[in-house]
Amino acid sequence: MAKKSKQMRAALENIDVTKTYPVEEAVKLAKEASFVKFDATVEVAYNLNIDVKQSDQQIRGAMVLPNGTGKTNRVLVFAQGAKAQEAEAAGADFVGSDELVAKINGGWLDFDVVIATPDMMAVVGRLGRVLGPRNLMPNPKTGTVTMDVTKAVEESKGGKITYRADKAGIVAVPIGKVSFDEDKLVENFKAFNNVMVAAKPAAAKGTYMTSVTVTTTMGPGVKVDPASF
Question: pLDDT value at position 1?
Fold first, then answer.
């Protein structure tokens, strides 16, 4: 624990926690402050002034980052017949029906994205208690309940992220890895920011984005100046 706090203190040396930085500088500082021995994930977190208890202030969706996430998602598809063959041809890692339900209910969770054709949702519904809390339940809003299995699989493999405001109104998503060039991380950040701006609920009052922070796995957060983007 002492070693970790020493590393964190060193990581914080160049970051003024009372200050907000232009997005380019925030990304640079977050990258430099990463002290873990693996290729850490770079994440952006938005603290939004919304009331998610109100149905017209919920924020949820999906997008494909221009430079991907740096992670290859393991994709599971619930489909049958021709759609199952289509999923396999598109590169899905796991394809099936009831046998996958049994496997998942038995504790197997070696996948990152779940896609389903609409006719399979009655089967997938039996996994609500397992997939729901992990934000893995297929949903039409995120493009994971669809007949266009090929597109869904290819996007999930190619940098698609899903986002959802939690109970506190916070949306946090990965925008790449520490190994990414800064300009690619900034481009991913700006692409997601455009989505967040467009997602502002009409019913939201006052300042919409109360804070925006860039961080890395186990690293310190760097606050971003909204005026810089």
Answer: 43
Burial class (CB in 10 A: 0-12, 13-18, 19+), 99: exposed
The H or E element spanning position 128 is helix 128-131
The size of the chain, in residues, is 229
Query: What is the value of pTM for the model shown?
Result: 0.80
Q: Give the residue among 141, 89, 155, 83 at the shortest CA–CA distance from 116.
A: 83
Mean pLDDT of 86-105: 95
> pLDDT at position 3, please?
55
State how far the Cα of 200 lies from the Cα of 131, in Å rounded to an integer. Answer: 27
**Cross-strand bridge partners of residue 223:** 213
> Rounded distance, CA 195 to CA 48, Å?
14
107-134: pLDDT as tens digits: 999 999 999 999 999 999 999 999 998 8
Helices 81-90, 149-157: inter-axial angle, 10-degree rounding: 30
Of 12-16, 40-44, 59-63, 191-195, the least confident: 12-16
- The answer to whether 84 and 99 are in contact (CB under 8 A) is no
Contacts of residue 149, Cβ cutoff 8 Å, sequence gap at least 6? 77, 79, 83, 86, 87, 90, 92, 115, 117
Instruction: Copy the structure tokens of residue 162.
Output: 């899903």
